[in-house]
Amino acid sequence: MPRGRYSLHDPHDRTRLAEERFQCAPGPSGWRYSAQLSTASGDPYGAVDLTVDRLWRPIRLELQARGWQVRGAALNGVTWVRTDAGGMHAREGNAHAPAFSGNSPAFLVTTARLLGLTPSAPSGRIRLVAFTEPVLAPRTVDQDWTLLNSRSHPTDSGPLIVREYRVTDLSTGESGSVHLSGDVVLAAPGVELEELESPPSTLTETGSEEGPAADGDDPR
Description:
The protein is mostly beta strands and 220 residues long. The chain has 1 helix and 15 strands.
């Protein structure tokens, strides 16, 4: 079960925004990620709790940030409820998209695995509902992902497979590189892995450690 700490910063001017202390683990029916967030000064301000099925579709999402909360899941696309701390301004939303996105590195892991890119099929496009901080406002984003390479690096605990992706926002043309190993983001725009207490979990392309998806299932 990987545990560690990410630092989140503005990808343009490198302003430090937050720290995200996380743990994640695969299981028989999918994968779960949970994290607590704090500001650059150390004050707590949010949390992430994401569970996906073995096809990497979100079956439960809970986000908290500065008094706002989002709960969502894959239902008729994706469905969510966003509300303030007092519950006075609850709003439900739905979009024809297979998954969610946001500032947390967890969403990079789940999107990459949901697409399941391979050297023989290295590119794919996906529509996501992203929740932007500080008020977790939802917006629809379209991204293009390309698997650039997959390399094995020797470590004391065995070979570490690192995959590099190019991710492009199709509305702005802005792109960046994402480096993943198992269920851990090693580096990405606005993300740095500061601590890791145990190696990343070994995962299949279309599910957890329990094996591949059934023929004919297409999460996109």
